[in-house]
Design goal:
Elements: H1 10-20, H2 23-30, H3 37-44, E1 49-51, E2 66-68, E3 71-73, E4 77-79, H4 85-88, H5 92-102, E5 107-109, H6 117-123, E6 128-132, H7 138-151, E7 155-159, H8 169-174, H9 184-191, H10 194-202, H11 209-212, H12 224-231, H13 238-248, E8 251-257, H14 260-268, E9 273-276, H15 290-301, E10 306-310, H16 316-325, E11 329-332, H17 334-366, E12 379-381
Bound molecules: flavin mononucleotide.
Amino acid sequence: MMQLRDCHNFNDFRMLAQKRIPGPIFNYIDGAAEDEKTYDRNTKSFDDCDLVPSILRGTESVDMSVNIMGQKLSLPIYCSPTALQRLFHHQGENAVAAAAAKFGTMFGVSSLGTVSLTEVREKYRTPQCYQFYFHKDRGLNKAMLESAKAAGVDVMMLTVDTITGGNRERDLRTGFSIPFKLSLSGMFQFAVKPMWGINYLTHPKFSLPQLDDHIDMSGGALSIGKYFTEMLDPTMNWGDVEEMVKLWDGQFCLKGVMNPEDAKKAADIGCSGIVISNHGGRQLDGSRAPFDQLAEIVDAVGDKIDVIMDSGIQRGTHVLKALSLGAKAVGGGRFYLYALAAAGQQGVERALELMQTEIERDMRLMGVKSISELSRKNLRFR
Ligand SMILES: Cc1cc2nc3c(=O)[nH]c(=O)nc-3n(C[C@H](O)[C@H](O)[C@H](O)COP(=O)(O)O)c2cc1C
């Protein structure tokens, strides 16, 4: 039987996660919007670009650290904020935060996180970002910013590619929603993963603390679907965000920028970073892959703002390609989520350790001893 020690790469974690968690939950992580073309392209885009190594530049040690938005990260990849982590493994956000702290990198807590951002801020000393959704109720937005500030969140990350929900057809088929509304076959898939069920029932009750403090989510009165359609503001615009940046008065980034004009506006309204992202292919299918779009955006704003990218990263070489093209750091979702689902904190630690080992090995093979030595000179597009 496959174990954590048999996991040597992204696909191994994915396979182990699939074996261990119920199908509807696995498919929520694994799936994306509509035909999943964008999801597919996100990783394939790296194959159109080759690394060109330099030789005879040996070094004792390799420095993988980067600085983004005032934070020093020991690794150039961080754990991007994702929803519902305690559904994937009962340790949830605690596992991800603990592993990120161990490797000295940043982790994000989602607005739809299942552990309170204050709790993880108090327990783990490593850069933490808070992923924010913009509500119709401005008072609520203000209160949420204030409590994140008081908790000591380092970076505010406003997600801007979810102005409406993506069309995730795998979830429609399984009936995945919060609260659960499983289809019959979906229920069957829970029944065949009893360990997941036992852990789910014997650990603290599922909750969404970032929202529970402000909104009554108890008793399933408000589903996540309703939260998106009734609470979030479909009219959010640049003026709203400019106000939010002022209110936060600290490190602020937009997650989900794809267009150089938007990147310029983000710099103009005082953001310190942008994350080029298509939400791991989960929103607009048919949209461009971040790696394909990276050079254009770096050329437009790379000297004014920290340009970061996520979506599709599975390998150390993907990280090095993005950094060579001009990204300051990269984020990842599924690379640590499958590992979390497969084995909790130990799993996430192993995923980060594999990334660290790959990035270090690849830097040595490339002939560079620090991230700043990477440049477009060591890339060729086919
Ligand atoms: C299961 C899952 C849940 C996610 N939840 C959120 C979320 O709550 N907020 C958010 O801004 N992004 C969310 N994302 C997007 C990630 O932060 C990130 O942009 C994406 O996963 C990157 O693509 P990758 O999975 O190919 O690395 C989620 C992604 C996944 C896979």
